[in-house]
Write a structure and sequence with these properties.
about 280 residues, alpha/beta, five-stranded mixed sheet, three-stranded antiparallel sheet, about 35% helix
Length: about 280
């Protein structure tokens, strides 16, 4: 579904996906945009069962409409799933499990929470295009203040790394972003993140932390901006990535009240990137 084809209001959604039949028809169109073709015999005719299977009229092969999707194996109506997806995508600052439970009139908060986790995992598209330089990269902590630690030390804060395309837009609008929850700030964690998310040969801009030193050995044009003792210079020298880190922290505290556990943190980072990039 293109952005031009996306229902912009609840009324548009209700008119377009008013029934299970309408949702099934949409899934069929998405899975077979040029018409049904049986994976077993190549047949072009099929009928739809009540259990969301396309049954080949020629050989009887059953092709699941929901295979490979977050809806597979669910006993809930397609329309409910479609409404959940639409609602999550149209919430400017994201949706909470409590909000989704209310929207769908779900009896269980746990069901709403599980659905949101599934949808967050589906927000990352396999084979997505790498970021293109120049790209700012920096690491950060997520969590409250800690006493007795300094620099890149921590006791229980989560560690993340962020990459942001620099567009040169005078309105301070960054390009696409990537986030990762990492084990530490060593080159073993930072360099693979850049390799996986930034196009080879791109200019990568970082501070002077030693964990980024090997980037030039991996084919990147590594530009180092030394922050020095005045930490306020970090925002001046790496403005795009610091803006995204600040927005992420505000989003986690505002929408999710900071109640994000380390085990699920990567899924929340993926959701924030999904919303920013679109």
């Amino acid at each position: 579904m293109s952005i031009d084809d996306f229902p912009k209001t609840a009324l548009e959604f209700d008119e377009r996906f008013s029934s299970e039949e309408a949702c099934r028809a949409y899934l069929i169109k998405v899975r077979w945009p040029e018409g049904f073709r049986c994976a077993a015999c190549g047949g072009k005719k099929a009928w739809t069962s009540s259990r969301l299977y396309m049954i080949c009229s020629q050989c009887g092969y059953q092709a699941s409409l929901t295979a490979g999707t977050v809806m597979h194996g669910s006993h809930k109506p397609l329309r409910m799933w479609f409404k959940a997806m639409w609602w999550v995508c149209t919430q400017k600052t994201g949706g909470s499990a409590k909000g989704l439970q209310k929207q769908l009139d779900l009896g269980s908060y746990q069901t709403a929470w599980a659905w949101l986790q599934k949808l967050r995992r589906a927000m990352i598209r396999a084979g997505r295009e790498a970021l293109e330089g120049p790209v700012e990269v920096d690491d950060a902590f997520l969590g409250g203040k800690e006493i007795g630690v300094r620099g890149r030390e921590t006791i229980k804060k989560a560690k993340i790394v962020v990459a942001v395309e620099v567009t040169g837009d005078t309105r301070n609008i960054s390009g696409r972003v990537r986030f990762a929850h990492i084990a530490d700030f060593s080159a073993n964690s930072l360099v693979p993140f850049v390799v996986q998310n930034v196009a080879p040969g791109s200019q990568v801009i970082t501070d002077g932390w030693e964990g980024y030193a090997p980037l030039a050995d991996h084919g990147f044009i590594h530009q180092v901006r030394v922050i020095g003792p005045d930490k306020k210079r970090a925002v001046e020298l790496l403005p795009n990535v610091h803006r995204e880190i600040a927005l992420l922290k505000r989003w986690l505290m505002g929408t999710h009240q900071g109640a994000v556990r380390p085990k699920q943190l990567q899924h929340y980072l993926d959701e924030f990137a999904f919303r920013h990039n679109r």
